[in-house]
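pinging the channel bc i need a second pair of eyes. not urgent but kinda urgent?? the chain im working w is below, pasted from the shared doc
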Amino acid sequence: MNIANFDRFVGNGFLHRIFSASCISILSASLALSATSVAARGLPDFTELVEQVGPSVVNIRTIEKTSSRSRLGELGGDSDEDMQELLRRFFGERGLPQPKADPKDPKAPKNGKPQTEPKQERQRGVGSGFVLSSDGFVMTNAHVVEGADEVLVTLTDKREFKAKIIGADKRSDVAVIKIEASGLSAVKIGDVSKLKVGEWVMAIGSPFGLENTVTAGIVSAKQRDTGELLPLIQTDVAINPGNSGGPLINMRGEVVGINSQIYSRSGGFQGISFAIPMDEAIRVSNQLRSSGRVARGRIGVQIETVNKDVADAIGLAKTQGALVRGVEAGGPAALAGVEAGDVILKFGGVTIEKSSDLPRIVGNTKPGSKSTITVFRRGNTKEFPISLIDFEDEKIAKAASSSKTEKSKSGTGAQALGLVINDLSESQKKEMKIKNGVVVEGAAEQAARAGLRENDVIVSIAGNEIANVKEFEAVLGKADKSKSISLMYKRGDWMQFTLIKPIK
């Protein structure tokens, strides 16, 4: 082999293979280090967190006091009367034969009248909680202490205290209780706004009565709308009965939520659990500690989600805001000028992205305060000043009863919507305090699905006010049948809004 051939051999093959092998080796080593780093990040050590937060977590037991007679009823039948009936069937009208009582027995009947039976205690439930302050304030779920005659709190050092319920708020499921102790280890409150989806979190509680049980997982979602007043934190942390009221803890040892609910078809953990955000819980607890109750603002509207059909029907550019389904007569919204069919876009300058945002924002506004409400109505945006009232002042509207006329005047248009309608009589107008509209005498198919029912009074269709059946049919005849038709109707003291899809 000459020099030229050797150079060609080395340059084209041998050295290239050596260089490639070296690169692959370096790359493999780099990937291995990267994988090790990822593994290290993905598998945190919770031991320090448990040592840090564990002493602040408490076990909560609730006691219910019942009589032996009521216990007998619970175990043997639906009520004391059922038990007595059962005894009469076996022993006749006199019931169960009674042994002769010792007159010296303090529990013996006197003058033929039985003495009051002593109360018996039974454990009602087990839950969790955590120390808010060193002087003995403890936070838990409202459902943990609901209906309890006695609440017992056990610390990690096995000391047990009787607790006083300072306040419980069912709507947020937050409760504050107090034990007579000092120098307790209180939790650190975390910033929920900094919580990220995918972040590791840990829970400590008493599932099935197993005290100080530690479980861990990740944040699955934030601001999860479950139909509750508050948006919840969703995690895959194992939460079971008894975990309720315990803390959800981030990797910095801060409490970011209260473990409250699980989604389950079996009653046990299935990978989806929910926690109350700590910022909302603290807001509630501060009110409970100061006044024993939570004051929430209210504006008197019924709302629905703005979907694509709604947006297309009313000419809204995108699906956002809260659709006003009904307005309470004499309520803050009605007095401000809000109407059924409006879409609330902002409240107090805060944008309403989805309908569930509105109750939370309004609820967090102090009753009696003044704010502004921005609505979309028939292609235009309007802003109204509004004064809030206390949520506790809410009155349930009663449906007005109306007499039907003998003969319906419904046309083919109304029938296509599943409606049977008629003109209002003068007596109906007077009774309902309304000047124009048509009364619903029957609602089926699309109308029933839209929520309409007998005795509702339709006052407008497709954005046009109507005085009678003739005008109803005329407006409906000109409407675009390819889209949902908007209706505004009165039910009791409430003016409400709905959409109906015509039969094609």
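so The mean pLDDT is 79. and The chain is about 25% helix and 30% strand. — does that match what u expected or am i reading it wrong
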